[in-house]
Amino acid sequence: MNDLLKNNDWDISRCSKPFCCKEDAEEYMQAKNFEGMVLELNDGSIQAVCPTYPEGFYPQAKVLSTIGSSESCCEINE
Known about the structure:
Layout: E1 6-7, E2 10-11, H1 12-15, E3 16-19, H2 22-32, E4 36-40, E5 46-49, E6 62-67
């Protein structure tokens, strides 16, 4: 994504990241020390989202796992 995509002031390009499988998403979040959830969307794709992600953005998503940590991906400046 070239431009920052925003929905109700949330930076979607930073707070959600697609993965091929649940294990890769969990490993990524744990390696980065991020907290959040790993979701399976209704199309079968996997997304890792931070805990500040807008509730209801993926209304039909199934929560596969919850990752607890001290960091939020939206609070980290790169």
